[in-house]
């Protein structure tokens, strides 16, 4: 007995098999109420809850802290907002899956999730571009031109994400043609292929930029050491730390999303749904890790968190405002 590999409803509802008279007949969860809760759906809901809580704190801190208005924090805020929406989408998917079963709601929810995760990945690319510009054009980074560039990246990021999220709602879905469904129903195979191809393009660009960033960091560290007429141990430590941080950032992103993106291309609707869940769940973990990598490690945000949760916080420690190039 094989389960369907397509995720129904919001793109995450699983087609179930109902045995009748010794034969297996496919019954979609949208046709009959099913009260058995899929453990995979529970894990996705838990993941969404953690993602929502983590990123809600980051969004609140950046929104209510006037000092966090530099381009770097604006991009981090964009990333946290996208991940926050993705977490909310995962929670709503679980609720609608087991409470309200409607094709209209399914299309809206899957479009919401597509837009949110697309904005998350695009915001990561924007942060990478910002880090590269802060190193490549260090002298002119804090100019109005940089601010304009950041705003343009945000407009493109959210504009493209919104358009991709609206595609299933506007008709690019497989509700009327089951044979065209992808492993994530109601997205069509062509729609999911487009999303996967977009991810691969973003990943390649990020890889290229981080390699350039790594070269610049190593060159700057070497030049500083030469100015001191000798290579100190701190030179190697600083260089190694910078390269390690870049490797962790890119490695986490790739390990989270690559399995699902690859399976979206090679997978088929008739494959067991466990494969889809097993690759999708780690992808959601990226939105869980993002605030730790990009926000909670930042000293300005750490200080703002102390002020937020302990209003009487007083410290004599000087917190240095970090630039995007502080990797």
From TrEMBL:
SMART domains: 7TM_GPCR_Srsx
Bilayer topology term: Multi-pass membrane protein
Chain ranges passing through the membrane: 40-65, 72-99, 105-127, 148-172, 192-211, 243-262, 274-296
Cellular localisation: Cell membrane
Domain G-protein coupled receptors family 1 profile, chain residue ranges per copy: 54-294
The keyword Cell membrane is assigned to this record: yes
GO biological process, one term: positive regulation of cytosolic calcium ion concentration
GO cellular component: plasma membrane
Family from the record: Belongs to the G-protein coupled receptor 1 family.
Protein name: G protein-coupled receptor 6
Native organism: Pelodiscus sinensis (Chinese softshell turtle)
């Amino acid at each position: 007995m094989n389960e369907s590999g397509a995720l129904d409803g919001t793109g995450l509802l699983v087609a179930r098999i109902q045995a009748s008279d010794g034969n297996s007949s496919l019954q979609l969860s949208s046709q009959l109420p099913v009260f058995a809760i899929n453990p995979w759906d529970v894990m996705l809901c838990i993941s969404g809850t953690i993602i929502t809580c983590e990123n809600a704190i980051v969004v609140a801190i950046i929104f209510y802290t006037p000092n966090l208005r530099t381009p770097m924090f604006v991009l981090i805020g964009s990333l946290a907002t996208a991940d926050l929406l993705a977490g909310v989408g995962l929670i709503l998917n679980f609720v609608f899956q087991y409470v309200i079963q409607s094709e209209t709601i399914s299309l809206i929810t899957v479009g919401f999730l597509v837009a949110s995760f697309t904005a998350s990945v695009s915001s990561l690319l924007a942060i990478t571009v910002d880090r590269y510009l802060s190193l490549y054009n260090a002298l002119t980074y804090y100019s109005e031109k940089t601010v304009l560039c950041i705003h343009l990246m945000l407009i493109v990021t959210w504009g493209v994400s919104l358009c991709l999220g609206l595609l299933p709602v506007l008709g690019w879905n497989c509700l009327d043609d089951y044979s065209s469904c992808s492993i994530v129903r109601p997205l069509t195979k062509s729609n999911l292929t487009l999303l996967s191809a977009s991810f691969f393009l973003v990943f390649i660009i990020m890889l290229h930029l981080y390699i350039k960033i790594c070269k610049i960091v190593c060159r700057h560290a070497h030049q500083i050491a030469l100015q001191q007429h000798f290579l100190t141990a701190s030179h190697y430590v600083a260089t190694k730390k910078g390269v390690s941080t870049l490797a962790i950032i890119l490695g986490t992103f790739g390990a989270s999303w690559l399995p699902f993106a690859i399976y979206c291309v090679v997978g088929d609707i008739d494959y067991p749904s466990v494969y889809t869940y097993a690759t999708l769940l780690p992808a959601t973990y990226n939105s869980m890790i993002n605030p730790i990598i990009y926000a909670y490690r930042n000293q300005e945000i750490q200080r703002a968190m102390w002020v937020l949760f302990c209003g009487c916080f007083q410290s004599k420690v000087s917190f240095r405002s970090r630039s995007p190039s502080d990797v």
